[in-house]
């Protein structure tokens, strides 16, 4: 089996110099005239960079775009991935601003125009549409930036388009879970063993120091392993309950990544990103456990996103304190919440705990989604609540 991470690194290194990557294993199946035509079309003035990867069938997938994009440093770019003779073109938009502009609509239109063309012809049709200076988005895509191109499930000899990228920040409407599920299922797992994933301590330190750039760098260092694991967990091959957990983890990770990338993110927002990352880790571990234990594990995967995965929730008083060690009565709003040892001791003794601050006061005194859910400790699922409160 191809090592997806190493393959992506090699492809990314090539793509930094040349937007056309042709795997030597399939180079003989690409006529010189076709190669020259693709190279010429790649010189167009695209709204954002376009990369074409021609790979063997066992490598080609939409998920490869995610891994390559991570290896390139997460630039905004469109990726077209194909294998000659398969009748399938995987088209994706990746990067922090994947849904801004009209790239989603262009990819959807390219898919429609390609129809049942041979693969090497279809990719050129996509390039024509992506580079069309007179392109006008169809009416149903007029809300560009908030809605991705539809992912079709074509019959044989047609072409699949699946757009992807991080969700828009909390200041803008968030995209739906189903849309993101076509993009990144960032999953956490150590390949060498089955020990549960735990967020690295430097992430908590960076959040406490409001160092979003440091958080982003540390997160990026894990992204290749995480994205590589995704290629092993294809949702169409999983039981429905496990596929739902994978998609939920994807959504949580994408939301966290967007918060970390947001230059306007507050310390309270970065703490929220930690909670979302922890949620994604719990989702992956739940699926791993389900796969390891068969039907018994599959039933376990039906548990709610907050409770399963055998990963302690983060301290709801201040998520930068790290994993909770107990649950306590919430000091506001009722219910039970997770707390670290120190916060639990402070509340038990009647002392004011070390609250996460927002605007110079405990975050619970504000009107953010973090305050209304105590960082997901009470009420509805935090990921769903973020979508609901921001109009997705």
Give the helix/strand layout.
Blueprint: H1 4-15, E1 20-22, H2 32-41, E2 50-54, H3 62-71, E3 77-82, E4 89-94, H4 103-114, H5 119-130, H6 177-181, H7 201-208, H8 212-230, H9 240-261, H10 267-300, E5 326-329, E6 336-339, H11 341-348, E7 357-358, E8 361-362, H12 369-373, H13 382-389
Parallel strand pairs: 1-2, 2-3
Antiparallel strand pairs: 3-4, 5-6, 7-8
Explained architecture:
Helix content is 42%, strand content 8%. It has 13 helices and 8 strands. The protein folds into 2 domains: 4-141, Diaminopimelate Epimerase, Chain A, domain 1, CATH 3.10.310.50; 177-389, no CATH class. The strands form 3 sheets. It has a 4-stranded mixed sheet with strand order 1-2-3-4, sandwiched between helices. A two-stranded antiparallel ribbon has the order 5-6. The chain has 392 residues and is α/β, with parallel strands linked by helices. The model is unreliable at 140-196 and 300-309 (pLDDT under 50).
């Amino acid at each position: 089996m191809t090592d997806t991470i190493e393959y992506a690194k090699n492809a990314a290194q090539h793509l930094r110099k040349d937007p056309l990557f042709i795997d030597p294993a399939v180079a003989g199946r690409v006529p010189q005239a076709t190669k020259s035509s693709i190279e010429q079309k790649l010189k167009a003035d695209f709204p954002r960079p376009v990369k074409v990867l021609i790979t063997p069938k066992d490598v080609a997938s939409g998920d490869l775009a995610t891994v390559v994009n991570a290896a390139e440093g997460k630039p905004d770019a469109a990726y077209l991935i194909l294998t000659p003779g398969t009748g399938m073109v995987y088209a994706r938009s990746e990067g922090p601003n994947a849904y801004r502009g009209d790239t989603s609509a262009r990819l959807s239109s390219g898919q429609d125009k390609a129809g049942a063309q041979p693969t090497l012809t279809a990719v050129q049709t996509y390039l024509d549409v992506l580079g069309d200076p007179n392109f006008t988005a169809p009416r149903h895509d007029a809300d560009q930036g908030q809605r991705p191109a539809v992912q079709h499930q074509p019959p044989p000899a047609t072409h699949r388009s699946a757009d992807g990228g991080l969700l828009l920040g909390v200041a803008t409407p968030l995209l739906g879970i189903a849309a993101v599920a076509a993009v990144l299922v960032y999953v956490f797992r150590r390949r060498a063993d089955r020990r549960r994933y735990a967020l690295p301590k430097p992430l908590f330190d960076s959040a406490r120091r409001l160092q979003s750039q440091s958080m982003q760098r540390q997160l990026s260092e894990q992204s290749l392993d995480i994205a590589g694991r995704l290629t092993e967990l294809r949702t169409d091959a999983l039981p429905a309950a496990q596929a739902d957990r994978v998609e939920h983890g994807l959504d949580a990770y994408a939301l966290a990544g967007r918060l970390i990338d947001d230059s306007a993110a507050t310390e309270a927002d970065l703490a929220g990103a930690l909670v979302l990352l922890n949620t994604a880790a719990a989702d992956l571990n739940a699926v791993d456990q389900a796969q390891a234990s068969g039907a018994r594990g599959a039933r376990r995967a039906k548990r709610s996103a907050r409770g399963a995965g055998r990963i302690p929730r983060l301290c709801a008083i201040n998520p930068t304190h790290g994993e909770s060690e107990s649950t306590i009565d919430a000091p506001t709003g009722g219910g039970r919440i997770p707390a670290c040892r120190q916060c639990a001791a402070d509340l038990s003794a009647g002392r004011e705990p070390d609250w996460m601050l927002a605007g110079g006061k405990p975050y619970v005194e504000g009107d953010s989604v973090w305050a209304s859910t105590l960082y997901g400790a009470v009420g509805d699922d935090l990921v769903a609540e973020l979508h609901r409160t921001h109009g997705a």
